[in-house]
Amino acid sequence: MRDILKTIAADAKHWTELRVHDRRALQILVRKGTLETAAYRKTCGVGVRVLVNGTWGFSSTGSLERTDIERAVRDATASAEASSAGRLEKIERLAECELAVGDFTSGNAAELATHTTEEKAALVVEAERRTRDASDRIRSAMSRYTELIDEKWIVSTDGADAHIEDAKAEFVIAATAASGDDMVMSYQGAGVTGGWPELFARWTPEELSGRVAKMAVDLLDAPYAPGGRTTVVLAPDLVGLLAHEAIGHTVEADFVLSGSAAADKIGERVASEHVTLVDSGPASIGAPSAGGVVLVDDEGVHAQKSVVIENGVLKSYLHDRESAARFGVAPTGNSRAWLYRDEPIIRMRNTYLEPANGDAKSLDELVAGVNDGFLLKGANSGQADATAEFMFGVQEAYEIKKGKLGKLMRGATISGDAFDVLKSVDAVSSDFEWSIGTGHCGKGQPAKVDGGGPYVRCELTIGGR
Question: Which domains does the chain have, with CATH numbers?
């Protein structure tokens, strides 16, 4: 395949990028004792981008035949030529960098293949049954297993020549507990780049079922959290969600160019000195199996570690080759496409806050420093935008009084301006966890990402009943 792409690229009249993507996806879902989904899908094709007269042209084909790929090149070229006259701002150049050449492997597709589809289905069925049967207060349960096996070849006229193999697995359980008309849901899971040893490194399926069922029942008996601005200790999953949703999107260079909250702030203090925020392709901290691992992006750029905020100062945005050229910096390896028929756009990979070093504190020490506040765990759904304003649901809120943990409360939300929250950070722990590898980030097309961090003490607004 690589030889065919290189031959086509050598004959191209303009800058051309050829990306073959072969994906095998499996999803098994059981809800309320019923197998709702057991689907295997294979998607394969070629995405072609050309740069003509300062304008992108894109085309794709589901065929791997050379004549069809060459036709896609002609179609992409014609599209660029037709639209270039109406483009007000031309792309003057793409940022130069050392493009990836060779073979790159992440995850463990071979290990995943040792488990049959029947074994994976049995795992999901048993996990849902075990969760549902854990208590007579559990009204319903859901269990889902997903895996993505990707193989790519990326060749460009200016030197990219990469073969990429990647494997990601995900397992989640949810439970709904009820008493009369009062219902509450608990949800937990893991999403990794790797096989079953990585997927179940923290909790076995049995442990996960027990945790989710117990939390649902405990939350059903918990009072509602009060509202107001207060001091909180955020667990790594909420830190990861905040880093990704409320900060990460504001520093994606396409959003920056559209006027995000991070625009024109390079070199400015945007957080406290305790905050260093990173977006990395490899899992450069903690377990190497983070769910957003990318070794080479979809432009053939090495997906290196990018320090976005260093000791509170904004240092970098996240770039593809086009935006990097506009800002006069090196590309960061953040150009990603979901399938072959999607154009690469700027996306995060693994976004996190670094744990403390010299002045590291334990979770107990962080809690001891709170007179009246909450320890918050469990990221639920929410929203954030390029203004850095956010609102997230919280699954578990533990009252803190005079430095001591108290009762569990439910129904909490957190909100505010993410940069204001980061400015209020006065301590971070030495712990670290990857924690948001399940599901997908949405930005016109899905992407597998991860996020995490240490425990963080800060101030924000809690919404309750």
Answer: 2-221 (3.30.2290.10), 228-463 (no CATH)
